[in-house]
Design a protein that fits this description.
heterodimer, A: 166 residues, Alpha-Beta Plaits, 5-stranded antiparallel β-sheet, 4 helices, elongated, B: 577 residues, alpha/beta, Rossmann fold, 6-stranded parallel β-sheet, globular, binds thiamine diphosphate, binds magnesium ion
């Protein structure tokens, strides 16, 4: 396909009902979109949930998919947000195998990226990185010069700026 | 329903009461272990709802579908778990593709056994998810009334569709202590949209600048009962009207502005008008690939307008210049306030020229022609019949030669193209329209997929006429093989067909007749019309290798329409199917 590949971030506000996640996932998979990250959590009103979906795929057709998700009975709204009109953040936990003698080098990187050490043993540490996805990615690139044993990222969460609804 | 709940009622009994409150007249179904409580409730609760016992669950779904299309009211299906439920999936998908309101009630194993591979357990909620408008898995008997109410509301409003409700046996058998008429709770469902006046004005403005307009009316126009408005608009702006297969009947096909159906096997004059128009306005059609051919070339230089109740349809197949999201009737009522008479006399003359030059036609030499039978059926009945079709060549001939003059008189599986649909749909249509003559036009292939429902038609003494256009072939596929695959026949010969007339005769109350000669058409059709104690099967032994024309090869632009069999070899089609 000649379409441009892009990453997109959608925010979906849904009634908290069984099956709603499966229904939404089906709309994307049927059209060949790969869900790269997905965050689901209770919304301010506990009867509803908020989903932030990170996607890659052709921009062509995405608008129609947004409408198809929007028309699902349990979906209140589905919107695509550009990065400049919304705050987008994520969190990563990285477990690094590191002996005592090189620990200071790791801590330097941790400090530089304003990360936090959340677990420390003789041979390993877990570092928490938060922020914009690019910043988290940059940290992960740097820390890979040590032995990364495990990596967990939450995926993006998003909130529209100012008075705009998310 | 103001009475207070009886504590002695179980979930299934509450269900029956709720269905009755929704105006359900018939339930099409077949029982089994996990559905027994519901079937039991149908006789332990006093109700006017009639259970129609089918012979295969696919038939139940198509019957409910036929009933819904013939009446506009949702059809109801009731089946057991596992295989009973999976047998309905083809029927659910068929209804979903064509936006038909349907309620499917499936039994399910008891809640505590779900997910443990219990006997006849299937994840019906999951299996059907892509082919329903919405679905429920019930967890509490007291939720039944709300869910029934929501299900009917969702099925019929906005763009209609099937709604499934999976009911574990412990829920249907469990004590009901709730309220029979609770409020709905659908915060994410808002099918009613105000018509945007600015959109309508922009459309009116575009129309006013057109000199060669064409209206394309689809199922949506029919569903919203906008037939009066469509005709009024056409007459005001003097625009010819073509319809999709499912839109047949929106405008009487005898109307001077009617062009009949367009698309792959549409009339040549409809396709030619669409090729030459300077404005195309779809009212409730989704620009299906069978009508647009090659999307990138469809009405490329014309102003394109789309009116649809489903926002997700706008710009899906065809990018349009103007659109208005909303119920067709409401949008047209508004539009009519903003349009005035248009002088299209030259255009109409040109279109009439197409009609004269390229009428629907067929060779009259040699054997019994299926088209001839349909033409005579039309002449004998004046078109005042309800027609259902199966899928194949016979379906396209029926669409071409049986002119439709009222909405809901022509019923067929469009989007799904489901063989086996026609006959059970006729059963549903006959239940919904008991006073009318119902004809099922079927092929010898598709009829064999659901003909077990002859028993259902017999038991209920339904005077349906089943016209089997028997070519001893999977004819439509044979036609493609002949035209595009160098006449290599592969898997299309239906050797082994029964004698359909004799088969009918073997059912108590059914009648079978055989038609072999052109000269006998009227006599035999009349015989079928005179038999009203049960179904009548007409086995019409047609010429075997007749082809449907015009034809636009799949994926090709409308300009490439073939009016008759080409002398040269054609390349394989590139379109979807
Ligand atoms: C369930 C199903 N299986 C296969 C097809 C593909 N198909 C489309 S038309 C056709 C031939 C139908 O044969 P018949 O019912 O005899 O009708 P005819 O074309 O001969 O009029 C087939 C196999 C289909 N539409 N539906
Ligand atoms: Mg056939």
């Amino acid at each position: 396909m000649s379409f441009e590949q892009h990453t997109h971030t959608l925010s979906v506000y849904v009634a908290n009902r069984p099956g709603v996640l499966a229904r939404i996932a089906q709309v994307f998979s049927r059209r060949g979109y790969n869900i790269e990250s997905l965050v689901v959590s209770p919304a301010n009103d506990g009867d509803f949930s908020r989903m932030t979906i990170g996607l890659s795929g052709a921009s062509e057709g995405l608008e129609q998919i947004v409408r198809q998700v929007g028309k699902l009975v349990d979906v209140i709204s589905c919107m695509e947000h550009a990065d400049d009109t919304a705050v987008v953040r994520e969190l990563a936990l990285v477990k690094v195998r590191v002996e005592a003698e090189r620990r200071m080098e790791v801590l330097q990187i941790v400090e530089h990226f304003a990360c936090k050490t959340v677990d420390l043993t003789d041979t390993s540490m877990i570092i928490m990185s938060t922020g914009a996805s690019e910043k988290v990615a940059a940290f992960i690139r740097m820390i890979r010069s040590f032995e990364v044993v495990e990596l967990v990222r939450t995926g993006k969460v998003l909130m529209a700026r100012g008075d705009q609804p998310t | 329903m103001s009475e207070s709940p009886k504590s002695s009622m179980d979930g299934a009994q509450a269900l029956v009461k709720c269905l009755e409150a929704q105006g359900v007249e018939y339930i099409f179904g077949l029982s089994g272990g996990s559905a027994i409580p519901i079937f039991d409730a149908l006789i332990t609760i006093e109700t006017k709802i009639q259970l129609i016992l089918v012979r295969h669950e696919q038939g139940a779904a198509h019957m409910a579908d036929g009933y819904a299309r013939a009446t506009g009211k949702p059809g109801v299906v009731l089946v057991t778990s596992g295989p009973g439920a999976t047998n309905t999936i083809t029927g659910i998908m068929t209804a979903h593709m064509d936006s038909v309101p349907m309620i499917i009630l499936t039994g399910q194993t008891i809640s505590s056994m779900i997910g443990k591979d219990a006997f006849q357990e299937a994840d019906v909620f999951g299996l059907t998810m892509p082919v329903v408008k919405h679905s429920y898995l019930l967890k509490d008997p007291n939720d039944i009334p709300r869910v029934v109410k929501e299900a009917f509301h969702i099925a019929v409003t906005g763009r209609p569709g099937p709604v499934l409700r999976d009911l574990p046996k412990d829920i249907s058998a469990g004590a009901f202590t709730g309220e029979l008429d609770p409020p709905m709770n659908l915060p994410g469902y808002y099918p009613f949209r105000e018509v945007n006046i600015d959109d309508v004005k922009a459309i009116a403005e575009a129309i006013q600048h057109s000199s060669r307009p064409v209206i394309l009316a689809g199922h949506g126009a029919l569903i919203s009962r906008a037939e009066k408005e469509v005709v009024q608009l056409a007459e005001t702006i003097q625009a010819p009207v073509t319809t999709t297969f499912l839109g047949k009947g929106v405008i009487p096909e005898t109307h001077p502005l009617s062009l009949g159906m367009l698309g792959m096997h549409g009339t040549a004059y409809a396709n030619k008008a669409v090729v030459e128009c300077d404005l195309i306005m779809s009212i409730g059609s989704r620009f299906d690939d069978r009508i647009i051919g090659q999307a990138s070339r469809f009405c490329k230089d014309a102003v394109r307008i789309h009116i649809d109740v489903d926002e997700a349809e706008i710009d899906k197949m065809i990018k349009v210049h103007h659109s208005c999201v909303g119920d067709a009737k409401a949008v047209l009522q508004e539009l009519l306030k903003h349009v005035s008479a248009l002088d299209t006399a030259d255009w109409l003359r040109r279109v009439d020229g197409f009609k004269t030059k390229y009428p629907l036609r067929y060779g009259k030499q040699a054997g019994l022609k299926p088209q001839q039978i349909l033409v005579e059926l039309y002449q004998m009945t004046g078109g005042n019949i309800v027609v259902t079709t199966d899928v194949g060549q016979h379906q396209m001939w029926a669409a071409q030669f049986l002119r439709t003059s009222r909405p809901r008189d022509f019923i067929g599986s469009g989007g799904a193209g489901t063989m086996g649909f026609g006959f059970p749909a006729a059963i549903g249509a006959q239940f919904g329209r008991p006073k009318e003559q119902v004809w099922a036009i079927v092929g010898d292939g598709g009829f064999q997929m659901t003909l077990c429902e002859l028993a259902t038609a017999c038991v209920n003494k339904l005077p349906i006429k089943i016209l089997v256009l028997n070519n001893h072939y999977l004819g439509m596929v044979r036609q493609w093989q002949e035209l595009f695959y160098d006449d290599r026949e592969s898997g299309v010969d239906l050797a082994g067909n029964p004698d359909f007339a004799k088969l009918a005769d073997s059912y108590p109350g059914a009648k079978g007749v055989t038609l072999k000669r052109t000269a006998d058409i009227r006599k035999i059709l009349q015989r079928a019309m005179d038999y009203n104690d049960g179904p009548c099967v007409i086995n019409a032994e047609c010429e075997k290798t007749e082809n449907v024309f015009p034809m636009i090869p799949a994926g090709r632009p409308l300009e490439d329409m073939l009016i008759e069999r080409p002398k040269t070899k054609l390349s394989k089609p590139t379109g979807s199917t």
